[in-house]
Structure formats: C-alpha cells, structure tokens
Design brief:
InterPro entries: P-loop_NTPase. This protein is of the alpha/beta class and about 300 residues long. Helices cover about 50% and strands about 10% of the residues. The protein has a five-stranded parallel sheet, with helices on one face. Helix 5 runs parallel beside helix 6. It binds zinc ion (ZN).
C-alpha cells in the first residue's frame, strides 16, 4: 500500500532521478494538454480520468496534475499563453510528489498489484481523515483498466460520499475499460493515441496470432502452453494485456483489428464480463498462482463464453 512509502526510515530517492517522472508531459507537443490540466487544477473536479497515450505518458500527466496541486510556486513558461503553468520542480512539494512521499498524495498502481480490496479499505480510512499537510488530498489510481469489480465498487462508494478535501485522478488505457458508473462520475481527458499496431512487441504479435487461431477454431493453444515453464507470469500478463486491449477495441466497435473483430459478436455487457475475468486473472497472477494454469483456465473459459454468448 502507498502509505509505507511515507515512512521516515525509508531513504528519499535522488531528486534529479525522481523528477524524471514529469518529463514525458513537459514536451512542447503537449502544451495544450498541460494548459487544460492547469485550468482544471484551479477548480479541480472530484475525479479526473486520464486516458490515451501510453502508460508512461498518462502517469506523467497524473503527476503533473499532482505537482500543480501541491507546488508552492508553479512557473509560467516564457512566451506561452496565460493559461499554461507547470510545477516548478524545485520546491520540496514537487520533490515529495515525484518521490511519492507527499503525505497528501496517495498513489495506488495496479501494475504493482496494489489496488486490491485491502488497499481500498485503507484508502477508505485515510479519506475520512483531514489532509495531513496540505489543504487538499489527491488520490491517484494508476491504470484502472485492471481494477476488479470489487475494488471498483469500493472506490465508487468513496466517490458517492464526497468530502471537500479529497480529489481523485485515475489513469486508464481507454475509457471503455472502466466501470461506466466510475467513468460517469469524472471528467475525462484524452491524450493523443499511439498507433497501437506499431506498439506491439514481437511476443505480443506472436500471441495475438495464437489467440486469433484459438478463438477461431479452438486449436493451437495447448501446443504453446503445455511445455514446462512455457508461460511465465510476465507472459501471462502480456496475454491479459492483449485481451484487454482488444476487448476495448471491440467495445468501441473498431473491427479493423482482427482479434477485436472476433470479440465484436459479444454484447457490451458480455465484453465487460470478459474483461472482469481478465482482471481476476491478473489478481491470481499477483497471488503467484501458476501462470500456465491461469492462462489455460482463462482462455478456455473465454472460448466457451464466446461460443455460448452469440
Ligand atoms: Zn514546486
């Protein structure tokens, strides 16, 4: 849980190293987006969603927002419009945000497996307390597309009982991946998309082909997974990522991706259910359940699901 990072006996990371997290957002390419963020922080919404771009860029923007939230002296870049301001990256507040050591900036990262039910219980407790240092508290949930329904509902409960000092920012690959009830409670900011085909690694490309073949005619999977150690936890998570990306394409009706086009026969709620199943698989992997078992069980279940849902 994020709190442990605040403990005094933990070494503060090097400042120059820490503030690198802001860098991707500071490109002049994103001036208009930072302008938007700056306008938002002056009257912050209860919940801001950041979608699009890459995970790194979304994270950078979430920290940028947090930086502006807490910075003692935001700076106005020269020769830019009146509405652009950036965190100064010099004051102790900026540093504490970057190092995740600000007592009122609470970070959960689903990639670290820490948006589980226990963390949400801790968050509930923290959110009833007054901020420790600043006037407001900011809670960041990174990559919420991996949120399980249980954690999602726990967050929703918090949002339904708003408190004037708690603000939230969530990042996600794209809005279709998040519980509609959560999405509708926030303001969505969309960063420019990357070409998702070009982003694929060789392993992703290979597995996308295997998945296409498997969902088309039910073959070719066991050949790939049955050898001992053929699927490790990292590969299993890559496969989950491919599935989620293609569920999202299918939800958005993008049929030009072959794997996604196979999922287009599923209704929106079925796709949502399938996505839930993948979120559960992530949880199992984080609990060190055998990755081969996780993936075979997941894919078999999805296969049956597709054969019976249509
Ligand atoms: Zn600052």
């Amino acid at each position: 849980m994020a709190e442990k990072k605040n403990s005094a006996d933990e070494q503060m990371p090097d400042k120059d190293e820490a503030i690198k997290i802001f860098e991707p957002a500071l490109s002049p390419l994103f001036d208009t987006f930072r302008e938007k963020i700056n306008r938002l922080r002056q009257n912050p919404p209860q919940l801001l969603h950041i979608e699009g771009g890459s995970a790194e860029l979304r994270t950078a923007f979430a920290y940028h927002y947090a930086g502006l939230f807490f910075c003692e002296n935001p700076k106005r870049p020269e020769n830019k419009g009146d509405f652009l301001a950036d965190p100064c990256l010099r004051c102790s507040e900026c540093y504490k945000v970057a190092a995740r050591m600000h007592p009122d900036f609470i970070v959960f990262d689903s990639r670290e497996g820490n948006i589980d039910v226990d963390s949400m219980r801790d968050l509930k407790k923290i959110s009833t307390e007054a901020p420790r240092y600043a006037r407001k508290r900011l809670v960041l949930l990174l990559e919420t597309q991996k949120l399980s329904a249980v954690s999602g509902n726990a967050i929703l409960k918090l949002l339904e009982e708003p408190s004037p000092h708690n603000h939230y920012v969530f990042t996600m690959s794209q809005r279709e991946m998040v519980l509609p009830t959560l999405l509708s409670r926030g303001f969505v900011m969309t960063l420019p998309w990357k070409d998702s085909i070009q982003e694929l690694t060789e392993t992703e490309r290979e597995w996308e082909d295997i998945l296409i073949k498997f969902f088309q005619n039910g073959t070719g999977l066991l050949d790939k997974t049955s050898a001992k150690g053929a699927v490790d936890s990292e590969l299993a998570k890559t496969i989950c990522g491919i599935l989620q990306k293609n569920f999202a394409h299918a939800m958005a009706g993008r049929k030009n991706y072959l794997l996604a086009s196979l999922f287009c026969s599923l209704s929106f709620s079925k796709l949502f259910e399938a996505n839930e199943r993948v979120a559960l698989c992530y949880e199992m992997l984080n609990l060190m359940v055998n990755p081969t078992y996780c993936i075979e069980a997941l894919l078999t279940e999805l296969y049956v699901f597709m054969k019976t849902a249509g």
